[in-house]
Design brief:
By secondary structure, the protein is mainly alpha-helical. The chain has 5 helices and no strands. It has a single domain, classed as Substrate Binding Domain Of Dnak, Chain:A, Domain 2. The chain is 77% helix and 0% strand. Helix 3 packs antiparallel against helix 4 and helix 3 packs parallel to helix 5. The longest helix has 34 residues. The chain starts with a helix and ends with a helix. The relative contact order is 0.15. InterPro entries: LprI-like_N. This is Lysozyme inhibitor LprI-like N-terminal domain-containing protein. It comes from Pseudomonas syringae.
Length: 136
């Protein structure tokens, strides 16, 4: 949902491609006004969300190391549970997104955009959850 709102907000602001070219913080989601740009924006959103998810998972493992590293058995048990949970969540995310995009024809732009948006949204939600675990 964040991705949809981001896309709508960017469209509403009317940021132009020329502005994006002069702005070092520009993304493919700046000034989206055609299908190709929408596809590029959805891909960027997915990649960014998945990168953040990976970073947040690694940060969680570091927090666990800091908090439980002195007790190897407890550390190993907890990190094992975290890795198992993350793998199960990834399977659930992929399955849920497959259901969500089902009506669109596989390989079409609509399918790819919907799949990217779903994966980005769910990855963002998981990132927030991971950030909340093992906070001191």
């Amino acid at each position: 949902m964040k991705t949809v709102f981001l896309t709508l907000a960017l469209l509403a602001t009317g940021i132009t491609g020329a502005h994006a070219a002069t702005n070092p913080d520009a993304t493919p989601c700046d000034g989206v006004d055609e299908d190709k740009q929408t596809l590029e924006c959805s891909k960027y959103s997915r990649e960014t969300a998945e990168q953040l998810l990976t970073e947040n998972f690694q940060n969680l493992l570091q927090r666990v190391q800091t908090q439980f590293g002195a007790n190897k058995a407890q550390f190993d048990y907890f990190t094992g549970k975290l890795k198992t949970a993350q793998q199960a969540w990834q399977k659930l995310r992929d399955a849920d997104c497959a259901v969500e995009v089902f009506p669109a024809a596989a390989g079409s732009k609509a399918f790819t955009i919907a799949e990217n948006d779903c994966l980005a949204r769910m990855s963002d939600e998981r990132s927030e959850y991971l950030e909340s675990i093992a906070q001191e």
